[in-house]
Design goal:
40% helix; Rossmann fold; 12 helices; alpha/beta; 7-stranded mixed sheet; 19% strand
Length: 398
């Protein structure tokens, strides 16, 4: 791990507490959250910070995730820097309100400790909850580890609060595999954080002396125009996200991209995925490279807005793309795979990579490096036999 500017200390933190530290250093004004596994450690630690005077913020104890999102929406409308967090069923209970801050252009920031959706009841991690909210109009980023969870939280605030963006942002971290794993984390000096993330100055705060209405009734003659403006806003946010990542590197020394690669140079087969299992998959890539296999890894850091151009650039000249994901769109297959195929669709025949789909790690099931090696071998077999349609479960019990 590279040293960074403004470095003060290296500490051992679980992923949840790395998020809590980022919230503290961001100097948020209002926190509202409801405890749910595996997110609970985040909000427990923040509650301690507020109680101990480490963070000067209003901590609102709410009765549900629906109320938590409603509370931070109201606080953000008043110009406060806000935070909430949840997971799984909690994110689904919050779902109704998620559309409000994106349409009202409120820079709400949330951490999601990704968890499988019921039924059956499961508290472990996969990406079912993330896929269920992919169309709510939020900027969404995926972290692989505790360091990235800390860094991307700061990036989320920086980009969400930009006057030329003003959109809510989520940072996804895998439940348990990131949220509960203790890792070394580089925590910067708070002066460096303030350099990167100055105090929030929301340009349209509610003011009792100048009352206005927000979120009013939108009849048919105006609704489409509002949605068009919202779509333009999140499309335009893409360049601002790139600028934010560049600014982050200038201050802290670590670089992020919407699409990142590992040993992808000259690869014939690329494994594409999101989240913490990318680190395990990298071990499989190393092992296969040592045996002369031409394979590599592509990691999506940015989920929304979807990085179409960068995906095409990363996959250019590759024969086969193997998409591994931890969610299932019933009756269709893997949602990530469908978007990768859509991104490649416009490429001419002969330049469009073949795409093979795998789904695994559901409900927190581990996928070992050896299983990723097998996924890549199965990819070659499926391409050779022409089995490109549909998807294949990884680690399915007989």
């Amino acid at each position: 791990m590279n040293e960074v500017k403004g470095m003060s200390r290296k500490v051992a933190l679980e992923g949840s507490h790395a998020v809590s530290e980022a919230v503290r250093m961001a100097d948020v004004d209002v926190v509202a959250a409801y405890p749910i596994t595996p997110q609970t450690h985040i909000v427990e630690r923040i509650a301690e910070m507020v109680a101990n005077g480490e963070l000067d913020a209003e901590f609102i104890c709410v009765e549900s995730e629906h109320s938590a999102m409603s509370a931070v929406v109201g606080a953000a409308a008043c110009g406060a820097r806000v935070f909430t967090c949840t997971a799984g069923q909690g994110l689904e209970l919050m779902h109704e309100v998620l559309f409000v801050p994106s349409a009202m252009r409120l820079p709400v920031v949330a951490a999601i400790a990704n968890r499988a959706l019921s039924a059956p009841l499961n508290v472990w991690g996969d990406h079912s909850d993330a896929m269920a909210v992919r169309d709510c109009g939020w900027i969404q980023m995926f972290a692989e580890n505790a360091q990235q969870a800390f860094d991307l939280m700061l990036c989320a605030y920086r980009v969400a609060e930009r006057p030329d963006v003003l959109l809510p942002a989520m940072v996804h971290l895998d439940g348990f595999h990131v949220s509960h794993v203790v890792e070394p984390v580089l925590l910067p000096e708070e002066g460096a954080v303030r350099e990167f993330l100055p105090p929030s100055e929301y340009p349209f705060p509610l003011d009792p002396d100048r009352p206005v209405s927000m979120g009013c009734y939108g009849p048919p003659y105006i609704y489409t125009e509002v949605k068009k403006a919202q779509e333009v806003a999140i499309e335009n946010a893409y360049e601002k996200i790139l600028e934010t990542f560049k600014e982050f590197k200038e201050v802290f020394g670590r670089e992020y991209r919407p699409v990142e690669t590992y040993r992808a140079e000259g690869a014939d087969i690329l494994l594409l995925m999101m989240g913490s299992y990318s680190e395990t998959a990298a071990l499989a890539v190393d092992a296969l490279r040592e045996h002369g296999e031409s394979v590599g890894l592509v990691k999506l850091r940015l989920w929304r807005p979807f990085p179409f151009e960068e995906v095409c650039r990363a996959l250019r000249g590759v024969e086969v793309v193997c998409v591994f994901e931890r969610a299932l769109s019933f009756g269709m297959g893997g949602p990530l795979c469908s978007e990768v195929r859509a991104a490649l669709y416009h490429l001419p025949e002969g330049k469009r990579p073949k795409v093979v789909s795998f789904v695994g790690g559901l409900g927190g099931r581990d996928v070992r490096a050896e299983e990723f090696e097998n996924v890549l071998r199965r990819t070659k077999e499926r391409v050779s036999s022409g089995e490109l349609e549909g998807f294949e479960f990884v680690g399915l019990r007989e």
